# Entry
Amino acid sequence: KPMHTELSLYDEEWGVVGIIDRVDNIQGRIFVTDYKTGRVHPIIDHAVQLGTYKKLLQDKLGLKVDTYSVYYSDDNMIMFKKADNNWQEKAELFFRGIRAQIKDKIEHANPEWKKNTRLCRWCEYEKYCNDASYIL
# Structure
């Protein structure tokens, strides 16, 4: 029985919400699993996502993730990787870069830039992007 399913956690530092599909405690080891529809891809393709989940679980629940796993429903296959700090560091660099780009675009607003995409609901800067009167 999983410890958590569809667990939603927010990180104030990175400004990101993670919705973790599944967290298991198997003989004292913490596994975080993400479910994917579609065909198998290398697990490294999910490095930022899984690294973010590792940080969220540690910071918010005090859980030390031991293993990442991704289940691919189309192929009925699961892939595992030992959880080290490399993917968490990769995730941090990714989100810091995204935040820097957002701040730059807000400061140099262009009315032709696309707004209100499906990704906006995940971003703490949504209110700024949708109201040109805000300046960071």
